[in-house]
Amino acid sequence: MSSSLPITFYDIAQAPPVEKTCCSPNPWKTRLALNFKNLPYTTTWVPLPDIPKVRTSLQIPACRKFQDGADFFTLPIIQDPTTDALVGDSFDIAIYLQKTYPASGGGDLFPPQTLDFALTPNLAILVPLSERRGGPEFAEYANFNANVDAAFSVHVQLTVQEFPLDPATAEATKAEFVRRAGVSSWDDFALVGEAREKTKDSFRDTLGGLAKLFLRDASGPFLLGARASYADLIVGAWLRMMCVTLPNSEWEELRGWHEGVFGQLHDALGVYAQVK
């Protein structure tokens, strides 16, 4: 099947200009996948406080829950007029795009490969969520997605203070993050001095296991050498967040860790990073 009608892609609006500050990793997974598939789409930008209303209006239930059992309403969502499909989870969207448009753009998002990266146990995630619902389809990729998400999420406090909040919704967004994390104020997210250096060291060490996968094929920059797959897009989406939210000096540090594999991946995925 080919798509002639543009897909509507719902992403989270950050500070204007949103095309430069968009940095939420799960929407970035979808944007990279849409561009990889070279599918026509338009972006609908949704302020973070409006996400529950948008999901509810589209009758798409939350696919995760917070630790207290409350629904976690988030994006991305795609609405495909070619098939009348509505899909509201980044991994499910990737599967949908592959099954519906298998030959489009860069081809197969899920080529067979070994993705044996596992997060070091006993690292605390700032805002714990329930496990993603879903069956064993593309299980190797699903497990990789979960472990990469966890590896970055446990260090996400590094990004909070320079997060590009939209001034129009900043106070409501801060209050929502404070509520999600169970802390008393936005200032509790501050990470400075020795504590920040320790978190950076933990981040670098945690990503060492991931870097080994990229070093298996010296032709790089992707896990399968010159051929990108959804696994590369998963990591690349988190790197997009880090590029926007880390201080410049720390982003440059991350780019150089582990023989520079993450900087090379980020740059190579630039061809799929157009914001439409």
From TrEMBL:
Residues 14-105 form the GST N-terminal domain. Pfam families: GST_C_7 (PF22041), GST_N_2 (PF13409). SUPFAM superfamilies: GST C-terminal domain-like, Thioredoxin-like. Gene3D superfamilies: 1.20.1050.10, Glutaredoxin. This is GST N-terminal domain-containing protein. It comes from Lasiosphaeria hispida.
